[in-house]
Amino acid sequence: MAAAHGGDKAVYEQLLRELGDTIERYLRCHFGRLAHVEDCVQECLLAIHMARHTWDPHRRFRPWFFTIVHHKTIDLLRRASYAPPPHEDRVPPGIGLGLTTAGDPADEMVPGDILTRLAPAYRDALKLTKIEGYSLAEAAARAGISEAAMKSRVARAIRATKALLETDRNSA
Predict the structure, then answer these.
(1) Which residue range forms the structural domain that includes residue 136?
(2) Global pTM?
(3) Which helix (H) or strand (E) element contains residue 71?
(4) What CA–CA distances, in Å, run from 33 to 42, 84, 90, 91, 104?
(5) Residue 71 sits in a domain of what CATH number?
(6) For the chain, percent of residues with pLDDT exceeding 70
(7) What is the CATH number of the domain that holds 151?
């Protein structure tokens, strides 16, 4: 990125190619086969391109990079419904990540780990509304709770998911 800031277009193009591969593997590792991985990768790369002037060469690149990927992924998850694939379809953590280091938490995470780390009520709320696509009223009826309680659980589940991703990113 420092060379790209200096105006080296060839290095910047190479950086974007490598980051695209890294983003794709990160998404598949943490979320399995998302239906729109390529869309998310492109959105992340576009966001990185648009925000490249905000990167400080005196600070580490990875936290800046994964913050953008984190926010774009959350945006994607909010907009679409995804069904998690069987575990055998998921890419093992850390495989092919060009930016991993020996102490990278991605190497230690179980695929699809984010949802399994949520409280059961929150996990169920996310699955019903965001993955299976039920409306709040339908999900509430299925869970045997009020619509307001379901809305609250979904909001709390999203906050908890963000916190987990942030913790994982900060420990990198």
Answers:
(1) 110-172
(2) 0.46
(3) helix 61-79
(4) 16, 7, 7, 9, 22
(5) 1.10.1740
(6) 76
(7) 1.10.10.10
